[in-house]
Specification:
- This protein is an alpha/beta fold and 292 residues long.
- It is globular and about 55 Å long.
């Protein structure tokens, strides 16, 4: 089986292998002694959990893990895994890197296409198999999104949280919650891929034009207000993990955009990945204050 770590990956290529098991999981609430010994403090807890699983042999049944260069922590974890394997400290699956390049220029697009072809060759995916996988994956892309129910909606943005705990806090306050978790960000398929012409070029074009990771070059303030409009959100929680050093730079522009749109926002910065810093109480007070 093949697994992956990070966003902005060629899901059509992974699907074409017929043996993709999806993203690696994590447990941010457990002890991770081996990972704590090897990784600096700025690695997020999800990365530490993955490395702990690697060290414990929990991933030995996986053939390869594809890491995305579209996320700083994912690409740094790739290099640590490579070095730890070289030293014989860990065994486990073969680490592979997908060199996602997200700059809006032609050379960056050509780089993504070369990376797509390289990964496909390594995984044994040819053009006919990829074309068939694109058609199947496009069908999944066109499936209707599940309804979010009724009542006021709060959009959770900023750092994608590791699980549903922030969404649960919003629900406990009597609101509906929207916004992707980290796993949902990694598994997002993006818009349909062109089904005519060279399938490798088509996959690369879709990836290059719709980056979602922390290193993506796009207007995050505009993307946030677009998400508010699409979901009909009446409030926004902007939550940023302590280790997220990329997205936090966009916070001033995002706050300004929300103020201009008259959308109330709760800003929670430098937070622990476990969300144990009183977020539930802050969210409750914020949303109940809006409801009054």
């Amino acid at each position: 089986m093949i697994a992956y770590v990070g966003p902005d990956l060629p899901h059509d290529v992974l699907a074409a292998t017929g043996r993709c098991s999806g993203p690696l999981g994590w447990n941010v609430d457990r002890a991770m002694p081996a990972a704590d010994r090897w990784l600096e403090s700025k690695f997020p807890l999800w990365a530490r959990s993955i490395l702990q699983d690697w060290a414990d042999g929990a991933l030995d049944g996986v053939e390869a893990v594809v890491f995305s260069r579209g996320d700083d922590a994912a690409q740094r974890l790739y290099y640590y895994v490579c070095e730890l394997q070289r030293q014989g400290a860990i065994a486990g699956p073969e680490p592979l890197i997908f060199d996602a390049s997200t700059i809006a220029r032609a050379s960056s697009g050509r780089h993504v296409e070369a990376a797509t072809r390289s990964l496909a060759q390594r995984l044994g995916v040819d053009a006919p198999a990829l074309a068939q996988a694109i058609a199947r994956t496009n069908a999944r892309r066109r499936e209707a999104a599940p309804a979010l129910g009724e009542g006021p909606l709060c959009l959770i943005a900023g750092t994608p949280p590791p699980d549903q705990r922030l969404h649960d806090a919003v629900a406990a306050a009597g609101w509906r919650a929207a916004g992707p978790t980290l796993t949902q960000t990694w598994t997002a398929l993006g818009p349909p891929v062109e089904e005519k012409g060279d399938p490798f070029a088509a996959v690369a074009a879709q990836l290059h034009g719709h980056a979602q990771g922390g290193r993506g070059f796009y207007d995050r303030a505009a993307a946030l207000t677009d998400a508010v409009a699409q979901t009909g959100a009446a409030a926004v929680v902007l939550w940023f993990a302590e280790e997220d050093e990329a997205r936090i730079w966009h916070l001033p522009a995002q706050r300004k955009a929300l103020e201009a749109a008259d959308i109330p926002a709760l800003v929670l910065t430098r937070r622990d990945w476990r969300a144990t810093g009183g977020e539930a109480a802050e969210i409750d007070a914020f949303l109940k204050g809006i409801s009054q």
